[in-house]
């Protein structure tokens, strides 16, 4: 007799409870109990169990166990999975192409083209020779210890993912800034993406896409890294001086003119701060995503953990730090340049 | 003097709150601002405003903060939508305009100058000055000459390629004025345009505005909380208090015949000798005076007449307009006019 048996009998549900008792799955604890043959019987109020699903199940076999809940969720997901894949697969296919293309391009172009090209990009966005020298030395160091390929793979993935984050994030942020309704609907989603541990959304992604496809980790990175650029675009546009907006209205700007000539230029410092955050978060996620076959420095870290190769793991970690510093310095330098150009 | 009416405001109401229509009914039944706020939690912004703005004149709307003056000027180009009433510009009801017509009105017929300048910080002075033309789709090359002309006109030659943050407040507002002038619109709305500037620069800017106005004859609606500024600039003065018009008319007339204790209070502290003009205190007559100590213009202020008479109250002057006599000024009358209205009428109101 379990604690809540009397509850079910008083409700007249004994017949329903007795209907089936056999095919519920056994949990490990149940199994242990069965083997040990000790049917624990609460004797006092002190040991009264919380009226949970499992406690009710004990009293009435027809009542679902909590395990059924997770199982049901899993079953439900598996049922819609095929249909979902039909829609999502073609939609996300370009992501695979981008990632594979970028990886192929960066690995098949000789280093003496790639490194000067990267340095040129650094100079264009930062206009600082000091930074160019710093980035040059860092990349040379990585290449010297034969981590060039891994570092370039990581960079290629970050470039593609951060670019797509900006491509989608900025318009979403603009839409949020223009409609309070849109903002109310989007913020809970952003909060969830930001607080959900990254491992959690890797699980459904693994079900949906095959682990061999590069879009799997691409999606994981984009979902994780897109949040700051959306948030800061929204914030930046909302923070644009009300007086300037009023002047734009008073001179008869259309809302398109207002957006491109006033709001986006004035929100640019905030948007760039968002891009900086997005790039840093892509880097964080690309390491975790090596669990689902993302190439790059993360693979070495994983190898270090799996094979207990301390040295490999540490050096790869150091490589990631160097990449992080490079990306951060370069984006911050361009941000500073924008800020200086429109100091009020 | 009877110029055409450019903007006509009729029975304009503005109530802020969730259900302005309900509140409007209460106001029409005579509920006051304080009661409306307390009982219905609506703010009465404007209450039964009727103002005619004449073409080519400077109409100054004056009031203290919270009197609704900035709200009122924003109704003219519908940056704020009224709760009830009519606004006609050149005989067309602005409130009936659709989005396109309204945009055309804002682009071509009305320009605005703001208290906080509201320049685009990421554009050069030249691009800011040409903003109205940029909005209409012209390129920088197209409007460069026009923008440069107006920048030069407000005294900003050579600053074209600087950014607003490199200029002082007064210079930034000059850009604001150039921007409004370059739009070539007949109506200029100026929302406390000089209030953020320090006194000397403010005075300079007022002179600049009067000088430009003498040349361009725009229809200007000017908002201010500063009575001296209002009296200096106004052809027509509208005094607002708590969202309604206390008195409006020619500034000299308001000074000589204030019809409300609020206004008497307001004008008691100003330098009347500098503000009042001969035509307001003279005796209107075309007959030559018995003795005459000289000719003065009807537009002279009393200060200059006192200086001319060297303080002698026995003098009498002929007042002339375009070479003809229009009146006679006795210095004794002039001195009487210098006493503020309240004191002159033996008003018992406490004045301190």
From TrEMBL, chain A:
SUPFAM superfamilies: MetI-like (SSF161098). InterPro entries: MetI-like (IPR000515), MetI-like_sf (IPR035906). It comes from the Bacteria. GO terms for biological process: choline transport; glycine betaine transport. GO terms for cellular component: ATP-binding cassette (ABC) transporter complex. The keyword Transmembrane applies. One of its GO terms (molecular function) is amine transmembrane transporter activity. The chain crosses the membrane at residues 102-124, 131-148, 154-177, 189-210, 216-233, 279-302, 308-327. Belongs to the binding-protein-dependent transport system permease family. This is Binding-protein-dependent transport system inner membrane protein. It is a multi-pass membrane protein. CDD domains: TM_PBP2. Pfam families: BPD_transp_1. Residues 151-331 form the ABC transmembrane type-1 domain. Keywords: Cell membrane, Membrane, Transmembrane, Transmembrane helix, Transport. It is found in: Cell membrane. It comes from Marinobacter lipolyticus SM19.
Automatic annotation (TrEMBL), chain B:
GO terms for molecular function: ABC-type quaternary ammonium compound transporting activity; ATP binding; ATP hydrolysis activity. One of its GO terms (cellular component) is plasma membrane. It catalyses: a quaternary ammonium(out) + ATP + H2O = a quaternary ammonium(in) + ADP + phosphate + H(+). It is a peripheral membrane protein. It comes from Marinobacter lipolyticus SM19. Its EC number is 7.6.2.9. NCBIfam families: proV (TIGR01186). SUPFAM superfamilies: P-loop containing nucleoside triphosphate hydrolases. The keyword Transport applies. The lineage of its organism: Bacteria, Pseudomonadati, Pseudomonadota, Gammaproteobacteria, Pseudomonadales. One of its GO terms (biological process) is amino acid transport. Its main location: membrane. The keyword Nucleotide-binding applies. It is an enzyme of class 7 (translocase). It holds the Pfam family ABC_tran. The complex is probably composed of two ATP-binding proteins, two transmembrane proteins and a solute-binding protein. It is found in: Cell inner membrane. PROSITE patterns: ABC_TRANSPORTER_1, ABC_TRANSPORTER_2. This is Quaternary amine transport ATP-binding protein. Transmembrane segments: none annotated. Residues 22-267 form the ABC transporter domain. Keywords: ATP-binding, Cell inner membrane, Cell membrane, Membrane, Nucleotide-binding, Transport.
């Amino acid at each position: 007799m379990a604690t809540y048996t009397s509850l079910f009998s008083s409700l007249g549900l004994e017949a329903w409870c007795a209907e089936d008792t056999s095919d519920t799955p056994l949990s490990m604890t149940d199994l242990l109990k069965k083997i040990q043959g000790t049917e624990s019987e609460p004797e006092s109020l002190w040991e009264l169990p919380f009226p949970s699903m499992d406690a009710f199940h004990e009293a009435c076999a027809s009542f679902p166990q909590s395990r059924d809940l997770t199982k049901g969720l899993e079953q439900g997901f598996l049922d819609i999975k095929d249909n979902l894949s039909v829609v999502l697969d073609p939609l996300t296919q370009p992501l695979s192409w981008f990632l594979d293309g970028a990886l192929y391009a960066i690995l098949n172009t000789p280093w003496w083209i790639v490194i000067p090209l990267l340095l040129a990009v650094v100079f264009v966005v930062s206009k600082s020779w000091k930074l160019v020298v710093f980035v040059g030395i860092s990349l040379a160091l990585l290449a010297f210890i034969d981590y060039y390929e891994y570092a370039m793979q990581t960079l290629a993935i970050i470039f593609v993912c951060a670019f797509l984050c900006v491509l989608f994030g900025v318009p979403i942020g603009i839409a949020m800034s223009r409609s309070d309704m849109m903002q109310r609907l989007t913020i809970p989603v952003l909060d969830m993406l930001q607080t959900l541990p990254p491992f959690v959304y890797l699980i459904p992604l693994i079900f949906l896409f095959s682990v061999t496809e590069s879009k799997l980790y691409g999606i994981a990175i984009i979902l994780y890294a897109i949040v700051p650029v959306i948030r800061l675009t929204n914030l930046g546009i909302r923070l644009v001086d009300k007086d300037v907006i009023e002047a734009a209205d008073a001179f008869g700007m259309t809302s398109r003119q207002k957006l491109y000539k006033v709001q986006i230029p004035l929100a640019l410092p905030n948007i760039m701060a968002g891009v900086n955050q997005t790039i840093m978060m892509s880097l964080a996620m690309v390491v975790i995503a090596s669990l689902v076959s993302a190439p790059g420095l993360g693979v070495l870290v994983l190898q270090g953990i799996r094979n207990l190769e301390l040295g490999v793991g540490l050096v790869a970690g150091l490589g990631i730090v160097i990449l992080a510093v490079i990306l951060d310095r370069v984006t911050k330098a361009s941000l500073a340049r924008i800020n200086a150009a429109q100091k009020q | 003097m009877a110029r055409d009416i450019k903007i006509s405001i009729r029975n304009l109401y503005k109530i802020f709150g969730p259900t302005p229509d309900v509140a409007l009914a209460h106001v029409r039944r005579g509920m006051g601002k304080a009661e409306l706020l307390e009982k219905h939690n609506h703010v009465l912004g404007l209450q039964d405003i009727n103002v005619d703005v004449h073409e080519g004149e400077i109409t100054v709307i004056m009031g203290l903060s919270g009197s609704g003056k900035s709200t009122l000027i924003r109704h003219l180009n519908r940056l704020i939508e009224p709760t009830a009433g009519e606004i006609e510009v050149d005989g067309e009801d602005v409130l009936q305009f659709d989005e396109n017509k309204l945009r055309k009105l804002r682009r071509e017929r009305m320009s605005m100058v703001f208290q906080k300048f509201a320049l685009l910080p990421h554009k050069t002075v030249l691009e800011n000055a040409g903003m109205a033309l940029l909005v209409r789709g012209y390129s920088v090359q197209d409007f460069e000459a026009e923008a440069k002309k107006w920048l030069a006109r407000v005294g900003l030659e050579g600053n074209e390629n600087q950014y607003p943050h490199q200029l002082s407040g007064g210079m930034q507002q000059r850009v604001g004025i150039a921007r409004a002038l370059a739009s070539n619109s007949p109506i200029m709305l100026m929302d406390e345009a000089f209030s953020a500037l320090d006194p000397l620069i403010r005075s300079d800017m007022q002179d600049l505005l009067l000088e430009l106005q003498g040349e361009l004859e725009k229809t200007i609606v000017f908002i201010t909380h500063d009575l001296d500024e209002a009296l200096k600039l106004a052809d027509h003065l509208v005094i607002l208090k708590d969202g309604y018009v206390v008195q409006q008319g020619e500034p000299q007339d308001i000074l000589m015949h204030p019809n409300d204790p609020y206004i008497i209070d307001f004008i008691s502290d100003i330098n009347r000798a500098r503000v009042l003009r001969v035509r307001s205190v003279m005796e209107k007559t075309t007959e030559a005076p018995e003795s005459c100590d000289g000719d003065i213009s009807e537009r002279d202020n009393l200060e200059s007449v006192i200086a001319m008479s060297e303080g002698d109250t026995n003098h009498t002057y002929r007042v002339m307009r375009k070479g003809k006599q229009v009146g006679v000024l006795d210095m004794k009358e002039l001195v009487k006019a210098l006493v503020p209205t309240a004191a002159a009428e033996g008003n018992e109101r406490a004045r301190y």
